[in-house]
What we know:
By secondary structure, the protein is an alpha/beta fold. Helices cover 17% and strands 41% of the residues.
Amino acid sequence: xxITHASFVTxxxxxxxxxxxxxxxxxxxxxxxxxxxxxxxxxxxxxxxAQTVFTLSGPGMGDFEPGSTRGIMLxxxxxxxxxxxxxxxxxxxxxxxxxxxxxMASFRDPDGNRLMxxxxxxx
Length: 123
């Protein structure tokens, strides 16, 4: 096997513009692609410098159910500060909590997709 990384993760959304505002304006992601395709809009965002991008998949772009994505872990250098910023933006945040692998919080995007923030434990 010669796999080097994941290219993209699909996040099914009902309204791509609303999702874009959340991922760009609240989470600080950058737009990496915004194209009109025959099936619909191909919209991708990512944290600055990330290899893996997130495709905000709207209606017509596959058989995906908005809000069905779970378990995406976003690594941060300061989960407490980022959790506070999310809360200030009106996002419900659970945690952060201390766990054996680090300090972690969870939240949902506007469509209910579940994401987590993690500041990894220092070895």
